[in-house]
Amino acid sequence: MQTILHHLKRAAGTQVAVGGPLGGADAYGLPWTLYKIDDDKDDSTLYRPPILAPGSWLATFTSFLSSQLSPGKHTLVITNVNGTSPNTFVLDWIAYFP
């Protein structure tokens, strides 16, 4: 496992979403990512991307949408947990909702 973004941002809000582009498995692999908020050991979300045909590309997709959070500051940790080769995870955006 490789933590690719640790304590990425402390931001106030009651929900967070993460997304970015996704390419064909032949060129980009299958980057499974684990999302954890506030280092909660019992609550994490594993995202397994769809397998796209060779040469395919999705400009944007949502890989994570949290449940409702208590108002206040939260820490998001994203970990790449799949060791395939290639294994390209591209983070394009993080949205915090008030």
Detailed description of the structure:
The protein has 98 residues and is mainly beta. It is built from one helix and eight strands, in the order βββαβββββ. The strands form two sheets. Strands 1, 2, 4, 5 and 7 form a five-stranded antiparallel sheet that branches. The protein is elongated. The relative contact order is 0.44. The mean pLDDT is 83.
Summarize the structure.
4% of the residues lie in helices and 48% in strands. With 98 residues, the protein is mainly beta. Strands 1, 2, 4, 5 and 7 form a five-stranded antiparallel β-sheet that branches. It has a three-stranded antiparallel β-sheet with strand order 6-3-8.
Continuous helix count: 1
Question: Which blocks of ≥5 consecutive residues have pLDDT under 50?
Answer: none
Largest sheet: 5 strands, antiparallel
Can you count the beta strands? 8
* Tertiary shape: elongated
Q: What separation lies between the terminal Cα atoms?
A: 31 Å
Judged by helices, strands and strand pairing, the structural class is mainly beta
Helix content: under 10%
Radius of gyration from the alpha-carbon trace, in angstroms? 14 Å
Overall mean pLDDT stands at: 83
Element layout with pairings:
Elements: E1 2-5, E2 10-12, E3 15-23, H1 25-28, E4 33-37, E5 44-47, E6 57-65, E7 73-80, E8 93-97
Antiparallel strand pairs: 1-7, 2-7, 3-6, 3-8, 4-5, 4-7
